Sequence to fold (551 residues):
Amino acid sequence: MKELSELIFVDGLRYTEDHEWVTTNGDTLRVGITDYAQDQMGDVVFVEAPEVGTELNKGDEFGTIESVKAVSELFLPVSGKIVAVNEDLDDAPELVNEDPYKNWLVEIKPSDPSELEGLLTVEAYKELLKG
Amino acid sequence: METTKTTVLHDFHCQQGANMASFGNYDMPLWYKSGTKAEHLAVIDSAGIFDTSHMAVVTVKGNGARALLQYALTKDIDSCIGINKTPLTEGRCVYGLFLDNDGLVIDDAIVYCLGDESYMVVVNAGMGGDIAVHLKALAGSGAVVIEDLTDRVGKMDIQGPNSAKVLKKIVKDPKSLFEKLMYFSFKGGFGSCISSSTVELKDGTKVLVSRTGYTGEFGFELFVEIGALVPLWNQILEAGKEFSVIPCGLAARDSLRAGAVLPLSHQDIGHWPFANTPWSFALADRDEAGNFTKDFHGAKALLKSTWTRHTLAFAGFDPRKIGAEEANYVADSEGRKIGKILTCTTDMAIGRVDGEILSIAGNKELKVKGLCCGFVLLDVARQPGETVFLTDGKRKIEVEIRADVRPQRTARAPIGTMVD
Fold:
């Protein structure tokens, strides 16, 4: 298991208490899991993503990520419509372990972009992990 | 609660950045930095090593030792070796169970015949004390000496097709070690567990080399005195470099054994009657009337048991799992609850091609994503090929009841083909 000092964080992203990250990509948002999350889960063997077009509220479960250890639910960090899912993960779910910040899970068109401001900054997320 | 224990390899696990968790009250590695998938595949392709010194060893010696084990163990040790069912003799070992008076499983075990009235019994983590007490109770006031060697034995496994090639580099006389070392046989000894054969490493360390394991693949379980384990581990890692041998954690051990349809004690077998399972080979044979060929502790209860539930192996159609948590269950096609999930993991070396399960073993071109597999305990009988559904109430995955899961396993490969 990685020590806090070994974990990778990316400045400028927003984070959640469920160990997801969010970044803006034009007028949409991309969502992935953090290095801490992938390290805790172990090898990812399957990512179950929602249908494109699904509309969900902040906090709703939008899919699952399966590792060798367990099945983890994924929760939407902001309300909106799923506009894309990362199809690269269908054939190579291990990409999430290799580079969790490059390999996003879903892209959302937010219904209330201001919700993004309510998420954790990188500093706040680091504090959360320190416990 | 008892404080969590560690094995002598604990420092190694931590230095290697292993993801640790408590198992059987020992702080053990789940996986190392290479990850479970790489560890699982290393055992299929080459070899991997496992710290198994959390397991317990109990010795049973003295006049009456054999008779005691013949009564305590479910397997008939006078009729268990090979197709001719010859008796357990020195250098051979056998898998069986210890049942309580009600026919419920206390633990599973491998019993090693070290010599005349001298046996070594290997049981699961934390079970040494319980099994020693159980055997002492059955022994009564006889001359049998039962000793629990918990935390006093060093044990590690090397598993995978290159295991003998690695071992060959560090033992003094590989030719005599590997000669006729068939599946479920052993040579050598250590500490107080001595047989008439000796196996020494090049550095003089005495070792008991057993052609057994818990992965379904070719390999060995190695026993040494506890102080010799870390040096042995390091020698094997060094010798294994040219074969890309890596340390493997409990997660890979779990996915490998599930694909090999081997039970985990206290999870797939446990405090319920041992009946209608894929592992009836752990019991004494039965005659035409259905009676066991020998009496053993728990046999009467087992014969009278009204247990109608069935433990069955399954494999899915992709890697998705539903965990074995209490709230999750097995449903039929109508959604009716028909049982519980005992084990659910992903064998990452297999996939389905036109419905058939294939392994990457000997088929390097094959690209697989892995299949979920494990065991269910059903209230109803189901035949191989029939499907059931695992569900957590929200997600539902279809799985197929199987007689076997991962094909092309190497555990029983002729040793002559595995050394050079």
Observations:
- The mean pLDDT of chain A is 95.
